[in-house]
Design brief:
The complex is a heterotrimer of chains A (370), B (271) and C (274).
Chain A lengths: L3 E10 L2 E11 L4 E5 L6 H9 L6 E6 L2 E2 L10 E4 L11 H11 L4 H14 L15 H13 L5 E5 L7 H18 L2 E6 L2 H7 L2 E6 L2 E6 L1 H6 L4 H6 L6 E8 L2 E4 L2 E4 L2 H10 L4 E5 L4 E4 L7 E10 L4 E7 L2 E7 L9 E6 L5 E4 L10 H4 L7
Parallel strand pairs in A: 3-8, 3-9, 6-7, 7-8
Antiparallel strand pairs in A: 1-2, 1-4, 4-5, 9-10, 11-12, 11-14, 12-13, 14-20, 15-19, 16-17, 16-19, 17-18
Helix pairs in contact in A: 2-4, 4-5
Chain B lengths: L1 H10 L2 E2 L8 E2 L3 H8 L1 H34 L5 H9 L6 H11 L6 H8 L13 H27 L3 H9 L4 H12 L1 H27 L10 H10 L4 H26 L9
Antiparallel strand pairs in B: 1-2
Helix pairs in contact in B: 2-12, 3-7, 3-10, 4-7, 5-7, 5-10, 7-10, 8-9, 11-12
Chain C lengths: L4 H29 L3 H6 L12 H9 L2 H32 L5 H10 L6 H13 L6 H5 L6 H12 L3 H9 L4 H12 L1 H17 L2 H6 L8 H6 L10 H32 L4
The chains are: A alpha+beta (370), B mainly alpha (271), C mainly alpha (274).
Chain lengths: 370, 271, 274
Amino acid sequence: MKEIRFENVKKSYGHTEVVKNLNFSIHEGERLILLGPSGCGKSTTLRMIAGLEDVSSGNLYMGGKLVNDVPSGKREVAMVFQNYALYPHMTVKQNIVYALRMKKVPKKEIAARLEDALAMLQLRGLEDRLPKDLSGGQRQRVALARAVVKQADFFLLDEPLSNLDAQLRVSARKELVKIHEKYKQTIVYVTHDQIEAMTVGDRIALLNEGVLQMLDTPENVYHRPANIFTAKFIGAPPTNILEMVYYDKHIRFGDQKMSIPNEWIQHIQKANAREMVFGIRPEHLEIMEEHGENTMYAIVRAIENLGAEYAVYLTFNNEEVIALSPHKEWRVGEQVYIRPNVQHMHIFDMATTNSIGYPEKMVNRVPVFN
Amino acid sequence: MFWPFLYTIYLSFFDWNMIKPTKEFVGLQNYIEVLKDPLTYKVFGNSAVYIFILLLLNFTVPYIFAFILDFVIGRMKSFYKSAFFLPAFISLVVGSILFTWILNPVSGPVAIVMGWFGLEMPIWSKLDGWVIFILSLITSWKIFGYNFILLYASINGISREVIEAARLDNVPLWKIFFHIVVPMSSATGIYIFIITIVQGLQFAFTPIKVITQGGPNYASSNVIYHAYHEAFVLYRTGHSAALSILTMVIFVILLIVEFKYVERGIYYENK
Amino acid sequence: MKISKNISIPWHIAFLITIFLLIFPIVFAVGSSFTSLQDAYNHPLALFPLNPTLENYQAFFDSLPAIKIAINTFIIASVVTLFKVVTSFMAAYAFVYFIFKGKNTLYFMLISTIFLPFTVTMIPNYLIISNLGLSDSLWGVVLPQLADAMGIFLLTQALRTIPVSLIEVARLDDMSHWQIMKDIVLPLARPAVTSTSIWFFITAWNEYVWPVLILKSTENFTLPLALQMYISSEGGTNFTVAMAVSVVTMIIPLALYLMFQRYIIGTFTSSGIK
């Protein structure tokens, strides 16, 4: 009953359409991430759920009810804002219980919920401080606590961790999951950070320019991107997208070619796209010194130290390609050989930019995600 | 708030004295009479002199002072701000009384100090020119601080980096003022320019009424005081209304010219 | 920023001279108000009274219903302030947080009235007051002063600095506008509301143009009107009494300003013109 459903939902300001025709559902009790680059419409989508923005056209259902004209206060939502929006003139405790008092929740109940929230979010001892006397992490937890005590059906978070430093973010993510496991609200979480999306989300809805690009589990979004945008947006360094030609059971890149498994051959033939591009993640591209089976040559252009490994920039068939390598014994200008791991390749239809999908035999293969 | 304004326009087409039960429609007669009256031109001329002095003392000077206080002065900043702003909170009637005595041509302290140097204080309230100058001075005493504070706020809001970049390039102070500070605070600058004209003339009403009643022989009257004089001393509502409307039309034209002229140069803060 | 001392010293001097010109009349008035007329004529340059006396204040209280006049001024200023603060605050709230058709046009029209000279409304307002039978009454002074674009402008600027997300959180909690106004906006805007109120109070206290048109009998006078009786273009013969009345007239505005100057200057310096 606590699901959210978008039916042809559009949002425009004057002549600019910010959200174009959204059609999807958020299931009861799941953690759905709205992910995308800035200006993709993710925050607008969240604010439409909150009722802070009107729906320009289409229908928005929450808990089975059409809510287009329901004011935000009647939607049973709690929200955490990017800047936390703590009332600066109220103490931590006053901030947390203010809404409950206004709703005339019994005093005992308020005290119990407050106690719970303080304990869970490690805010004990800070009750009487003003927001200005708290650290960033503490403020963020107060904002969470304030939203949690409402025990609303829908829990909305707008980039709640973007003002925290990297270490705090990790612990805050865990806290969030803990809260959700306790209360099982329907969570909608906006972020532009894909690590956050992967770790927090049950499912990810990836938006770009107001259009839903893909809605699936983190695993599938990573390993089976539905289109070129998804492939390039998720993962860093981004997926290499290369011009290719399929001919005579091989994939050809200019004057070089590569053999592929039988099931892919059949799949490509079935897909019957006129022009295709090839996608491979840097981590699935091996660099070797010597020519070997199914290898192609490339020239090293630059090497970037990523800490655990090295990103090697290569020129291959007149295009730039990035490969990850565990060591840096490569010299700029040197000719090397690359071998794509064909178990992890992607092929997209150039005309639609959509993936042509994956061979049936491989569909059930659960990719290992780490 | 707009109804009285419209009613004033209505009245400007009638001959009336506020007491007669009937108003007589005279069309544009009031405007023609006002425009034919040499007194009107005298009063407009006086107003121009008021505007000139008020702009000098309450636009140019506080603009420069605000810049200096923000960029040159290090210490006593809040003291200066408080002290400049203080007279804005005192009644102009009080101001008029104080200055009337202090500038008393015979026994006032200024006259006495001037006497030490063999100078004679003019009997300013009886002299054309002098009278406007002194009344403008009294008005300025009241409005200087208000204008100063708003200009200071605007200049203070300019990003420090921009100014610091200019300092690093060794740009002299006066060039920073004209090339960076004035353009970047011009929205407030124009606002102050306009209210100095429009409200300055209205503030001047008080010392005129209190000290000279427009005299000697209308030498200190301005358009605002004259409209009051026509309506409540001579009881010629039509003339007064026509004069007010003319005044406003001139103000509006001034504003439009001003905006047209500087529009391209305005840098809007907070945008 | 480092700027050498040599530049700043002449400016300090210029500032101090300006301040002397602005403040000297006030100090002089206070000094003279405690000086007998005789002493004042004999020692016109003395800033402080040689033989302090209250006779000038006594003269004011004897010749005019001084207490009544002070109370009139206080009542008018208080009523005007109360009305103006409430209406300006509500209007500012509506301009900032409500969305309605023609909002910007309305705001622009309202603000543009700041530029209307009072002469274009003075006759109709006078007629309204007379027709209501309120000439020579305190209400006649109060009524035309109730709406004020400047207050709406100042408070609108102040409310705009409150993050919108605070209001959004409250809306998600199903709070009424009344509650939001009372519990969130008002406490956060208190410095601005306080200083705007003081500004209103002082402006109404000092108001001269309206009272002079409306009030005729001395027992209805306000302080600026009473003060006006002591003047002639020669400076008047009993100017020390005039100085005493001046001190009475300016003491309350000055005290308020000195007490709240940080708030007031803060509000005026944060109301950038947009």
